[in-house]
Write a structure and sequence with these properties.
This protein is mainly α and about 450 residues long. The chain is built from 20 helices and five strands.
């Protein structure tokens, strides 16, 4: 796995400094099966993301992305960029180049331009007629066109403008869902938060819409590294979501994101009550049996199994468009929680056996434990000579003595306060309440 630091730039996203990781061939990813879970823009974006990060799948991913753009999109710009990159990859391997369909590009450009002009004229006429519903639909149609052409910023503007023309709760929900969809793609999660709240405040929300809002909010919190909040929202998502939101996320993703965030942030009791005993979330876990096995393995302290599963799926998750940048943090938190949970029932632990259970060496384990001790997450000390981790035993006698001193100080303060009050009353130094009524 090679690591390079470079700027990821896009016309539709903010410039961010990110760590780009080139991933070896994943152990479990069947590209055709995986990408069949999605539709629309996210299908293309995920394929291009995989092509960018995984040389072994690069050519197949580019071809699938180009096929999707050619058949279901007007985004000729993205088509040309993807085709150019594909030809660079093919040339590097000495293989025949991909034939760029210039006729389709030219035709699509003309279609997109004429459709945009027609929709703008129609919208202008609607505004002249002052019919709110027609104006709202005109903005929506123009927004849909811009979205299909890959102009996300213009699409967001059109969808946002429908806000002033919404007359029913259904219209507000439609407006919010459109803005959320585009904002997720743009990576503008502050917009996602705002419009999720607005949508949730409308009456009579259908269960499937509620499920969509939950996962949208969860993705926003995941982006903000608020893993516990994200986990709760994923776990609260109803299975009504099913395949109804695959333009953003698949039900398999809900299982993976929710499971990993829960393992990284929940304590043992929460894991049992909110994940293992959650009948709704069990339906998502059925789609990803290894996540279910991972959660049960962690709860039953089968740490070797847990670490094996995590390592086996690492490369697959590094190719996930939403999860990749959080994977190392999530894995690190899960490992820390496993170390803490392993030690919690014991007064002393043999570091050799512990290192064996966690698939590491004793020196590396000592460094991990030392970090947890300095962070005050484990109350223990390391006996490096005998290779033993010992729990710090509280001196009960000293604890009782300190508690007694504290009680004595509190008694002294309350007694002095009482004496002061008595002396003030004796000297008649009091503020009397005025009992006279003003007439």
């Amino acid at each position: 796995m090679n690591v390079n630091l470079e700027d990821n730039t896009s016309a539709n996203t903010k410039r961010k400094r990110t760590l780009e990781v080139f991933v070896d061939l994943p152990n479990n990813l069947d590209l055709d099966t995986y990408i069949a879970n999605y539709r629309g823009h996210t299908k293309v974006d995920r394929l291009l993301f995989i092509a960018k990060r995984c040389p072994a799948l690069q050519i197949d991913a580019f071809k699938l992305a180009l096929n999707e753009i050619h058949n279901n999109s007007l985004d000729h710009g993205k088509y040309i960029i993807a085709a150019t990159k594909l030809n660079e990859a093919l040339a590097a391997q000495g293989r025949p180049l991909y034939h760029i369909d210039n006729a389709w590009v030219e035709t699509t450009q003309k279609r997109a331009k004429s459709a945009a002009e027609r929709l703008e004229v129609e919208l202008k006429n609607y505004k002249n007629n002052l019919i709110k519903e027609s104006i709202r639909m005109g903005h929506n149609e123009l927004g849909d066109h811009h979205y299909n052409c890959g102009s996300l910023t213009n699409a967001l503007k059109c969808y946002s403008r429908t806000r002033d023309y919404c007359t029913t709760a259904k219209h507000i929900i439609e407006m919010c869902m459109n803005v959320i969809k585009v904002s997720v793609e743009l990576g503008n999660y502050s917009h996602v938060h705002s419009y999720v709240i607005k949508a949730e405040s409308t009456p009579d929300i259908q269960p499937v819409v509620q499920a969509k809002l939950k996962v949208a909010a969860a993705l926003a919190h995941l982006d903000s590294h608020k893993y516990k909040v994200a986990a709760r929202l994923f776990l609260e998502t109803g299975f009504e979501l099913s395949n109804n939101y695959t333009e953003v996320i698949s039900p398999n993703d809900v299982a993976v994101y929710g499971g990993l965030c829960a393992l990284a942030s929940f304590d043992r009791a929460e894991l049992k009550s909110k994940v293992i005993d959650n009948t709704e979330f069990k339906q998502f876990l059925e789609l990803e049996p290894h996540i279910r096995e991972l959660i049960h393995g962690f709860y039953h302290s089968k740490y070797s199994l847990v670490l094996d599963i995590l390592e086996k799926w690492r490369n697959d998750y590094l190719l996930d468009i939403h999860l990749h940048s959080h994977l190392e943090t999530l894995y690190d938190n899960i490992r820390k929680k496993a170390l803490i949970q392993y030690f919690s029932p014991f007064l002393t632990v043999d570091l050799n056996k512990m290192a064996q259970s966690f698939g590491t060496t004793v020196p590396k384990l000592e460094r991990e434990l030392a970090k947890l001790i300095t962070e005050n997450q484990i109350q223990a000390r390391i006996d490096s000579h005998n290779k033993i981790l010992c729990a710090k035993q509280q001196d009960q006698r000293s604890g009782i003595f300190q508690k007694s001193l504290k009680m004595g100080d509190e008694y002294e303060k309350s007694t002095n306060a009482m004496l002061l009050r008595m002396n003030l009353l004796k000297a008649n130094l009091i503020v009397a309440k005025d009992t006279k009524q003003n007439k």
